[in-house]
Amino acid sequence: MQTSQKHKITGKCIDWPVQELESYCCPPNQSLEPCQSGSDDGSNSVQHSIPNLERYCTLDSSSSVQNSSSTASFSPDGSPVSQQNYTYPLDLHHSPENTCASPISGSCVIDNENDLGLMIRQLETAMLGIDSGDLDLHAIAASGRATEVSVEAERWKYMKEMIARGDLKELLFACAKAIESNDMYMADCLIAQLRQMVSVSGEPMQRLGAYMLEGLVARLASSGSSIYKALRCKEPASPELLSYMHILYEICPYFKFGYMSANGAIAEAMKEESRVHIIDFQIAQGSQWLTLINALAGRPGGPPSIRITGIDDPTSAFARGGGLEIVGQRLRKLAESCKVPFEFHAAAISGTEVQLENLGIQPGEAIAVNFAMMLHHMPDESVDTQNHRDRLLRLAKSLSPKVVTLVEQEANTNTSPFIPRFLETMGYFSSIFESIDVSMPREHKERINVEQHCLAREIVNIIACEGKERVERYELFGKWRSRFIMAGFTPSPLSPFVNATIKTLLQSYCDKYTLEERDGVLYLGWMDRAIIASCAWRC
């Protein structure tokens, strides 16, 4: 070893999650103590005893004179074969890049052999708690090499066993963990294996896995935002065909019944009003209002005059094959057939841009505000200092509405870190994919289109994107409740008649769909998983 060479020793942690984060991917009997911690200057300081260091860390030695390359492959029997020539020179002479956790000296830069001996004793004391002046440096280096090979072998052995088990959820989680830990070797191997296991026409978890895998690949490539935009739900060109989203509403009752409960709350609040103004902050195709117009047309004493303000992002016009005028024409045609006085006001702007003057408020109107599957797209305080999520609630409160309705996904993909968010996404969407499976054959082309264009883009966005690019930011109802109360609203229980009607209609679907009302909030779900929460508020 040349003492003139400078070497940097860093620790790579084999960081598997706590038992399930849960039961996924934890090798048996492995402690989860961290192997390294970052110091203020960005270096890594050793903080463990040698037994812990040998069991959980691999040491990479990089020299300013000689660089080594590393690849890994499997032998015919499946065991890992290392193709790297490992060297671990322990000459730290004049290396400003190395620090150690010495309680006496914060620097590992030495000028003579006496300093080297002192440094080693300090390191031994810090790591072992004993004075080990007789330890052989070459023995330590050899031990380090053996430890690295042993740890790597154990690691790849565990991955082989995990692949043999064929648990798709486990492998997806392991891949997410590898990507989070920047373990590219493990991530690449798992991605290659996962590609052989997922299928857009397979079982529910295989189909969901296909889109979650694309999200992971996009996260690696930092291309999640562009994929999200490319996968936006697009209707067929022919007006005779139902849109993919409409098909989703028909085969998946969560969204459809969520809208029904919101309409019921609005009808109940407006039963004595002659002039009704509904402000829909995400009107999309306007399908929600078809049933409400029909219902109000048969109201005793005659229908009220209805005015709907539809807010929409102009860049999403292709989801309807055109602008908001298409929605207005559709609703106007229905209202005329029902002899309901009707007016449509288009506000072709994004929710983040909406101001009071965009809403066309007129004196004497009874106002209903509808937030259906929209607020989770608005950046909150964790993303933007303007916090449009709460700003829109305050704007709605300033209108003194008779009722405000909220329909949102019952999940948390907003502020949770990547790994918990990944698990939440897996659990939430696996329920949706399972419920779709009972409604449409797996090989049905329309089912594949629905999942690809209307669900996959959300999955990719949640997994692959961060910051302002991550726009699919669901929140649990508890958080929405806090926001509404802070804005000055009070809960308004949903109509028992509407709830009973929805429960009756739900019986025509699979018996695994669930409907539960708690504290005035309606939860629609699949088995034991709530999917949609619907509620109403008043000033």
Automatic annotation (TrEMBL):
Region (VHIID): 245-310
Gene Ontology cellular-component annotations: nucleus
GO BP term, pick one: regulation of DNA-templated transcription
Membrane spanning stretches: none
Annotated motif VHIID, positions: 276-280
Similarity comment: family membership: Belongs to the GRAS family.
Protein name: Scarecrow-like transcription factor PAT1
Lineage: Eukaryota, Viridiplantae, Streptophyta, Embryophyta, Tracheophyta
Underlying gene: LOC107917829
